[in-house]
Amino acid sequence: MDTLGLVWPPALGIKFDSKPPSLQEVIAVVNKARAKSAPEPNGVPYVLYKRCPNVLKKLHKLLQSAWKNTKTNKEWMTAEGVYIPKEQDSKGINQFRPILLLNVEGKIFFSNMASRLTKYLTENGYINTTVQNNGIPGVSGCLEYATMIWEAIQRAKSDKLNLDVVWLDLDQYHTR
């Protein structure tokens, strides 16, 4: 079979865990979340699930049902965009920080799915963390890239080489 020059990953080491999320997984996501996070579109904060174990158990049953039936609530996949001022008297778009607000229930559901998918992909060697490391728990991405850029700048200086570094300033994009 012609592989078209692609390198195929090794055979599976682990299978994807397709069981509905356990109560322990849901509790872990809720405990990891900041209690003072921004209010969500439906108004239900993480603190409700942190302080009311019986409500959390009911949510767990709902999450299990959604997982088993492969049907999620539309509100779990809908985000509300909000701009937060960076400074007290913010006027221009570059003085605001955009954030997306999602309902807590959807965050919990998809966080469990993302954790399992990340585990499946990394443990089976489908993600090369030397190349792709953004968003993978336990792997620092930004610091590594900043260090690589710094080392390239220092080498260019010491060896008197030309070096172009591009910094994308997305704030400037909004002001045009």
Can you tag this structure with a few keywords?
single chain, flat, Reverse transcriptase, RNA-directed DNA polymerase activity, 2 strands, two-stranded antiparallel sheet, transferase, 43% helix, 176 residues
Q: Residue share in helices?
A: 40-55%
What assembly state would you assign to the polypeptide chains in this entry?
Answer: single chain
Physical arrangement of strands within the biggest beta sheet: 1-2
Classify the secondary structure makeup into a structural class: mainly alpha
Helical segment count: 6
Distance between the termini: 51 Å
Q: How would you spell out the order of helices and strands?
A: HHHEEHHH
**Stretches with pLDDT under 50, minimum 5 residues:** 170-176
Q: Describe the global form.
A: flat
Strand content: 5-15%
- Mean pLDDT level: 82
What characterizes the major β-sheet?
Answer: 2 strands, antiparallel
Number-wise, the strands total 2
What is the CA-atom radius of gyration, in angstroms? 22 Å
GO molecular function: RNA-directed DNA polymerase activity
Protein name: Reverse transcriptase
Keywords: Nucleotidyltransferase, RNA-directed DNA polymerase, Transferase
